[in-house]
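Researcher: Go.
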Amino acid sequence: MQSSSSRYALRIAVFVAGALLMALEVAAFRIIGKTFGAALRETTTVIAVFLAAMSAGYWAGGRAGDRWPRPETLVATLVLSALSLFTVPWLDAALSPRIAASSLALATHAFIATSVLFAIPTFLLAATSPIAIRLFTTSTGASGSTAGSISALSTAGSIAGSLATAFFLIDWLASISRTVLLVGAAALATALLVQLASAERAGTRRLALALSAAAAVIVATSVFVARSSALEQSLLRPLPNTRVLFVGDSGYHRVTVRDRARQREMLFNLGVQTRMPLNDPFGPGNAYSDALHLARLMRPQTKRVLVIGLGGGTAAKQYMHHYPDTIVDAVDVDPLVVDVAQRFFTVAPGPRLRLHVADGRTFLRRTNERWDLIILDAATTNRYGDTFPPHLATREFFTEVSTHLTPGGILHLHNGFHASKLMPALHKTVGSVYGSVLMTGGELLASDGALVIDRPALVARARENGLLAQLPNLGTAIEQLTDSKPAYGDVPLLTDDYAPVDTLLRSR
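Model: Structure:
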């Protein structure tokens, strides 16, 4: 007969195991995403592997509970899950880059990595519920209610684990690796709790040994988690002549800052989002960023600018530097990006530069302000190339933008999708809202007023401002300006109801 404290410990173990299982799945999306991308097939792969491992764990846990119906079975399962979780950061650093660089089919990469990293700990955490059900069940007449209550408790834990991880843990720890290590430490602590509760009637000596072991493990795992940031840095494989300054995780990205070849770079997951010359914080960044000055050259009277997607702040800083009469608002959904931009890329908020942490669409909905120019630079990168938030690519969103432009104001949409079907789909969608649309490379400029291509005037203004000499790609952007429409073919008009960004990008 189990004591009341032992039964309470078992209930806590079931709840915590459910929470840890879903916390691990949330972390898995980010760990797989930083190397293999977060497109539909990768997220589906993570879900499928977790479901398969959970199914196997439920079956194996039931068999183990019947064969060894004692608390030590649950303790061993939790300890093994903790040990397997502690290996995840090393396995990820050692294997994921090799899998991504292998000749295996792209569609299998995320499946292999997810299976190697997460199948075993998921299997073990899932096994805890059926083991606990067997420990609680004292008669066949009560087995149904016991199974129901344990399942409900595990599900409640899963809900708590999902919310706590997505809304608190990742931001608090600022690291996916530390999040996984904390999940492992929690599994180990839960195992010790169950062991202590089951050992309370076994004598003072056994209890003292268990308490000593608990104290040792708590200290060891605390130091382990605290030092995992240094561990993470050591696991990075720096390129030649490269110095990593910062690595951090948020609810949106793995953000890396590095100095390389006399430039500072900000990376989101796999792709370089921002480049800044170390000797000139206002100098040229990524090639496309030079084209972000076209709207100002077309409308020299532009005074108020909104940048959606701060990154390292290239556009915001250059507008502040080159146009002293301009006031800039910069919005980014990721607070970590805003912090990193200020710490490492000399983005300095003040009277002429206001920084906002918000989703771009939500920000516009909540304000009545208007701007002469709205720059939409919200693209990010996964292993398939550049991608774009679907809710910022729809007719409804572009209509919202139009209500925040002054008469004749310009929307500048940066996209790197001219080699995919997303480019004509974006052109078609933007053109359904604005009367005038121009293209140059991967840039779209749109306005309710006529946008006239006057290359000599644009070149003259760029030369007068000194921009032509300072921004090497600006001249090419001016030269390639066109009002021609790309062939739309069968691409859809992107709406809130249907915006298949990932599907269109696969056409590259």
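Model: The chain has 20 helices and 13 strands.
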